[in-house]
């Protein structure tokens, strides 16, 4: 991690609400705001994004993401922590979200067979594999938290009525609503529970992974926007 970042112990003295997850998020600017306000994400909320290349690449992201959820179940420090992760893995990712991918890719005429991964897809999969292989619960939760919290960030900006096309509407609904908010709250809560007690070197490792994941989220939307001709700032 670069020296320009304030350590959690120094940051918490002046922060109004000194949550560890908020230290991670605010130390990941400007990428964080660039992700949640990204033109491609905004185009999804308006029902205008060309989802073909984005979803084809994201189907490969979700494969590594599912494996990472499994690693989180395995590395969690208690039964009570394993349960919400296992539930989300089984009920949402392996069921609702998987069904969405199959229907959406079919409707868009995209072959479900894995296309060549874009560089950012490969980089994101490598980061998730790195976190998974570490079997380090806070590191794993950091990557999961970025993926879910940033998605809640852009999806919660969608205005009613949601787009008519199910490809956009259901993608927004998958990343918004009370259950998804509770899931993001759980992930943040795990970082807030465990982060403050970690040695400073471990806190910096968690932040390093959190920032890398946030940067990859930005690059992923840039990739999608480039493929669809959606202008990037
Ligand atoms: C790249 C990416 N980041 C996050 C998510 C939300 N699970 C996703 N589907 N794809």
From TrEMBL:
It catalyses: thiamine + H2O = 5-(2-hydroxyethyl)-4-methylthiazole + 4-amino-5-hydroxymethyl-2-methylpyrimidine + H(+); 4-amino-5-aminomethyl-2-methylpyrimidine + H2O = 4-amino-5-hydroxymethyl-2-methylpyrimidine + NH4(+). Pfam families: TENA_THI-4. Pathway: Cofactor biosynthesis; thiamine diphosphate biosynthesis. Its EC number is 3.5.99.2. InterPro entries: Haem_Oase-like_multi-hlx, TenA_E, Thiaminase-2/PQQC, Thiamine_Salvage_TenA. Keywords: Hydrolase, Thiamine biosynthesis. Residues 29-225 form the Thiaminase-2/PQQC domain. Belongs to the TenA family. Catalyzes an amino-pyrimidine hydrolysis reaction at the C5' of the pyrimidine moiety of thiamine compounds, a reaction that is part of a thiamine salvage pathway. Thus, catalyzes the conversion of 4-amino-5-aminomethyl-2-methylpyrimidine to 4-amino-5-hydroxymethyl-2-methylpyrimidine (HMP). PANTHER family: BIFUNCTIONAL TH2 PROTEIN, SI:CH1073-67J19.1-RELATED. This is Aminopyrimidine aminohydrolase.
């Amino acid at each position: 991690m670069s020296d320009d970042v304030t350590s959690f112990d120094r940051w918490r003295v002046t922060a109004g609400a000194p949550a560890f997850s908020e230290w991670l998020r605010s130390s990941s600017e400007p990428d964080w705001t660039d992700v949640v306000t990204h033109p491609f994400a905004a185009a999804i909320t308006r029902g205008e994004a060309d989802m073909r290349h984005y979803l084809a690449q994201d189907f490969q992201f979700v494969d590594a993401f599912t494996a990472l959820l499994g690693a989180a179940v395995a590395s969690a420090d208690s039964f009570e922590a394993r349960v919400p992760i296992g539930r989300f893995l089984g009920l949402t990712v392996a069921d609702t979200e998987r069904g969405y991918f199959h229907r959406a890719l079919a409707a868009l005429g995209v072959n479900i067979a894995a296309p060549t991964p874009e560089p950012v897809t490969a980089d994101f999969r490598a980061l998730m594999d790195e976190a998974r292989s570490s079997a380090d619960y806070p590191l794993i939760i950091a990557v999961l938290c970025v993926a879910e919290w940033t998605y809640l960030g852009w999806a919660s900006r969608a205005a009613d009525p949601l787009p008519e096309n199910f490809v956009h509407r259901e993608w927004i609904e998958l990343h918004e609503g009370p259950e998804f908010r509770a899931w993001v709250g759980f992930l943040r809560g795990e970082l807030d529970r465990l982060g403050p007690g970690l040695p400073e070197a471990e806190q910096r490792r968690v932040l390093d992974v959190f920032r890398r994941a946030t940067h990859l989220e930005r690059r992923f939307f840039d990739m999608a926007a480039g493929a669809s001709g959606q202008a990037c700032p």
